[in-house]
Automatic annotation (TrEMBL):
Name of this chain's protein: LacI family transcriptional regulator
GO MF annotation list: DNA-binding transcription factor activity; transcription cis-regulatory region binding
SMART domains reported in the protein's UniProt record: HTH_LACI
Classification via SUPFAM superfamilies: lambda repressor-like DNA-binding domains, Periplasmic binding protein-like I
Provenance organism: Mycolicibacterium agri (Mycobacterium agri)
Superkingdom per UniProt: Bacteria
Entry keywords, A to Z: DNA-binding, Repressor, Transcription, Transcription regulation
Annotated InterPro entries: HTH_LacI (IPR000843), LacI/GalR-like_sensor (IPR046335), Lambda_DNA-bd_dom_sf (IPR010982), Peripla_BP_I (IPR028082)
Domain named HTH lacI-type: residues: 9-63
Length: 353
């Protein structure tokens, strides 16, 4: 004889277990920002104890919302994007939202545009947007809740959250100058990327303020990849006077530089200081011990998800652009030499007025 089927718990059962109203349970399930942390925790505990699974299809038909958030990412081969995706997924799930992830090298823009037009998602997070992003254009056109995370787009009418890439690059130039380096190298990505543009612009501004410059022979621009870092180091080592300090606009590029130095019987920092950008978990590996500009991933993602939830709740306000400070984390690739940041020249001038 087949055992009787276990009754599926309802939102009423959850409400009784948590000691709240059904309306409160509904607000928690839809990620409403107006629910206190204490109540949210009680409801979450009741959901777990009852093994409650909301019927997303039924909810979508009833409310017009799917609970799904599109996430458009760059190639996952970059460790920084791996870490960011992990944090984005964690934060969305904690808010009872379900990430739907698309990668740019697998037709992400087209898939995202299709989902936007069909209202298959309630909002979208774009971590690798450019001014030509079809998904960004479609989201704004449809007035879909949208947040740009990590990479920003000038004059884009939506919320944006990123790190202070200019200041991060500027301080690396200061760091090199403070420690007597005059032969400087740089490995960078495409200027189509806002992060690359700002990091390079800040680095060049810092060099200028320190009375330094960088030659074309000591610079390589290419795809943000380990292979580009390797190619750059090999090129630098062929010069009569190789750079003694190299700034890369991504940790992934820096890992390639360090590996190429070791393959050539050289090392960082003995033959060349190497500094990356992002401060990924790999930067702290024994094999790299990379000095890197830290981006506050958790804070960036937390703010981005909160801004998205505000939009989902119907907040009527002008778009926000939030820029968080970055800091240089010093490790073996620059001989553990400490860094003391100082004011940007323009900041000093403003203070003296």
């Amino acid at each position: 004889m087949t055992p009787p089927r276990k009754k599926r718990p309802t939102s009423y059962d959850v409400a009784v277990r948590a000691g709240v109203s059904q309306a409160t349970v509904s607000r928690v399930l839809t990620g409403n920002v107006k629910v206190s942390d204490d109540v949210r925790e009680r409801v979450a505990r009741a959901l777990a104890e009852l093994d409650y699974e909301p019927n997303s299809a039924a909810r979508a038909m009833k409310t017009g919302h799917t609970g799904q958030i599109g996430v458009v990412m760059s190639a996952i081969t970059n460790p920084f994007h791996q870490e960011m995706l992990r944090e984005v997924s964690r934060r969305l799930v904690a808010a009872n939202l379900h990430p739907v992830v698309w990668y740019l090298d697998h037709g992400a823009d087209e898939l995202a545009v299709q989902a936007i037009r069909q209202r298959g998602i309630d909002g979208i997070l774009l971590t690798s947007a450019t001014s030509s992003s079809a998904a960004l254009e479609a989201a704004i056109d449809k007035q879909l809740p949208t947040v740009l995370l990590h990479r920003t787009v000038d004059d884009s009418f939506c919320d944006q959250v990123g790190g202070d890439n200019f200041r991060g690059g500027y301080e690396v130039a200061q760091y090199f100058s403070d420690n007597g380096h005059t032969r400087i190298g740089m490995v960078t990505g495409s200027l189509m990327l806002s992060t690359t543009r700002e990091r390079e612009r800040g680095f060049r501004a810092g060099l200028y303020d320190c009375g330094l410059d960088i030659s074309e022979q000591s610079m390589l621009r290419g795809e943000v990849s380990h292979a580009t870092g390797v190619a750059a180091a090999e090129r630098f080592l062929r010069l009569d006077d190789p750079p003694t300090a190299v700034f890369t606009t991504s940790d992934l590029l820096a890992f390639g530089v360090i590996d190429a130095l070791e393959a050539a019987g050289r090392s960082a920092p003995e033959d060349m200081w190497v500094v990356g950008f992002d401060n990924t978990e790999m930067a702290d590996w024994t094999s790299f011990q990379l000095t890197s500009v830290d981006q506050p991933i958790r804070e960036m993602v937390s703010i981005a998800v909160d801004l998205l939830r505000e939009q989902l709740e119907g907040a009527k306000r002008p778009p926000k652009k939030i820029v968080l400070p970055c800091k240089l984390v010093v490790r073996r690739s620059t001989a553990h030499v400490a860094f003391a940041p100082r004011a940007h020249a323009s900041e000093t001038a403003a203070d003296s007025k």
